[in-house]
Amino acid sequence: MSIASYKKNIFTAAVVAVAAMLALPAWASPNSSQENATLSESESAQLLCENDSCKPHIMMLHRQARWGDLHSLAIVAMLYLTGDGVEKDIDRGLEYMKISAKYDNEIALFALATWYRNGQWVEKDEAQANEYLQKAIAKEYPPAQYQMALQLFTRNTEESNQEGSQMLELAARRGSAPAMFLLARLKLAGELVEYDLPGAATLLRRLSINGHDEARALSRQLIAELDRRNLQNTEQADTHAEDTYAKLAEELESSLDIERIQITGSAWGRSDSALAGIAFQNDRTFNRGGLGRIRTQACNFESNCASVRPSSRHSGIIDMLSDPEQ
């Protein structure tokens, strides 16, 4: 597949991504795909708590919320809103989420922004949605930056496209997988951003290492295209371009050769409930005595590390915690 073939449909693809994103709960930014569904009865079949095994973890989240952990409070809010492991109570869920947002928790701000925009669980209110979204962006929350970039692209003016590109770059640098993937595609097409083959390859390589299925598939296509170009350059005796393409293909290939091993919680004698992982993660990072968070190293685009991010196979709550800053 030729890289140039992206140019015909790339802007349409970006608009489709916008439409899909604006139909989502805000925390559920897709990883391996722009296609996802709103939290509905179909998602209720994928609830995290299938039995009573996760009750201790829900209790742990309640304790963390009482100690002042706003992330835990936002998660508890979602449990009540969805009836996941607790008796469904939309009023209580909204109350908890708004309390978390009052103290500028980015998860809560982003969730409320989407609910007010879509009229989900609350009365539709564009002004309120924009206010919450701007606050989430001010917190440098990658999913909020990504959503704003998509909104700016839909306006399709020179100024909005430039602002959208800048916002997309910020989200990608903060580790947003969907932002990184869209940015890689735009760099390959030279649409909305400058054509940047090495930059696109770098983004695809990082995503592939983290198990992003679509990035891995696109990487294979790009490798084939680079090999084809290499053959042309060999025939034309263009050694500089040949070396450049060969190096990029080698780097992409190396990211596809990495074997990813996942260890479930049950292997450590704990419940394999996804909710257990959230509770234990919060418990490790929360300083109960000081009512504050332990300083940690962020794993983002600029840091020398890689983190495994949830994909579209996860439920909304897991997706909500996909950002490495959380």
Structural notes for this entry:
The protein has 15 helices and two strands. The chain has a two-stranded antiparallel sheet. Helix 1 crosses helix 8, helix 4 packs antiparallel against helix 5 and helix 12 packs antiparallel against helix 13. It is globular, with a radius of gyration of 21 Å.
Span between termini: 38 Å
Mean of all residue-level pLDDT scores = 74
How can the largest sheet be summarized?
A: 2 strands, antiparallel
What is the CATH topology classification name of one domain? Serine Threonine Protein Phosphatase 5, Tetratricopeptide repeat
The dominant shape is globular
Descriptors for this entry?
326 residues; mainly alpha; Serine Threonine Protein Phosphatase 5, Tetratricopeptide repeat; two-stranded antiparallel ribbon; 2 strands; 1% strand; disordered C terminus
Outline of the structure:
With 326 residues, the chain is mainly α. Helix content is 60%, strand content 1%.
Secondary-structure blueprint of this entry?
Blueprint: H1 10-22, H2 41-44, H3 55-66, H4 70-82, H5 90-102, H6 106-118, H7 126-138, H8 142-155, H9 158-173, H10 177-189, H11 197-209, H12 213-235, H13 239-256, H14 274-285, E1 286-287, E2 292-293, H15 316-320
Antiparallel strand pairs: 1-2
Helix pairs in contact: 1-8, 3-4, 3-14, 4-5, 5-6, 6-7, 7-8, 8-9, 9-10, 10-11, 11-12, 11-13, 12-13
